[in-house]
Amino acid sequence: MKNVKTLTDIFVKVMFDALFFIVYGVLIIALGLVLLVRGLYVWIYTMFSPIFGLMYFFEKKETKGKTLFDQMNIQTFISLALVPVYSMLALSF
Predict the structure, then answer these.
(1) CA 11, CA 18: separation in Å to the nearest integer?
(2) How far apart are CA 59 and CA 74, in angstroms?
(3) pLDDT tens, position by position, 77-90
(4) How many CB atoms lie within 10 A of CB 10?
């Protein structure tokens, strides 16, 4: 009867399986939402890219308040473009 598991062993295995299923499920849902928001930001950057090019070419004058275009720069675009690389690198370990 070595192959027969006790009821407690089965219960412990099912509980650990359920715990890992819930944890990975929440992580995958969160990753999906983050990548969806990232996709929207990249889409907005793509839509406004001609304006960014004109602003770079004409060297926009100094403004006192922070506008939407002050927050959107090439470093932010590159960081958004590399989000899938970072997230898959983190999940690969």
Answers:
(1) 11
(2) 15
(3) 777 778 777 777 77
(4) 10
